[in-house]
Each structure stands twice: as C-alpha cells, then as structure tokens.
Amino acid sequence: SGPLDYPNRRYGNDHDRYEWSMLTDRAPVSWPHGKTLAVFVVVPLQFFPLNPKG
Question: Residue 36 phi/psi, 5° resolution?
Fold first, then answer.
C-alpha cells in the first residue's frame, strides 16, 4: 500500500476510451507527397497571478 497503488493500473492506458498500442508495433506514418517530416507548433498560453488574494 502506498502512493503508487492505483486500482486501474495495468499495461497500457488506465482507461478504455481508445485502444493502446506499442509505438514500435504501429505502421509507419506516411505524409502527403512523400514528405518525411511534419512540424506541429504548440504555444501554451497560461496565466499565473503573482500576488493571488484569497
């Protein structure tokens, strides 16, 4: 018993929303026009008050 005890812990996901598969078992990704690289830029926008009141 401890902080890592979790009743849904198992191999893969801990939920059944979608199937889990090992990355090495998946088919290779193929991009349009035979391209070999895709870039996805994510800009996280967050706000952290410096002097929270409460």
Answer: -110, -5
What number is the average pLDDT over the span 12-34?
85
- Tell me how far apart the alpha carbons of residues 49 and 53 are, in angstroms, rounded to a whole number: 9
Q: How far apart are CA 21 and CA 29, in angstroms?
A: 14
User: Among 26, 29, 28, 27, which residue's Cα sits nearest to residue 40?
Assistant: 29
Per-residue pLDDT at 16 exceeds 80: yes
CA 5 to chain centre: 22
Is the CB of residue 20 less than 8 Å from the CB of residue 12?
yes
Q: Are residues 15 and 8 in contact, defined by beta-carbon separation less than 8 angstroms?
A: yes
Q: Give pLDDT, residue 54.
A: 60
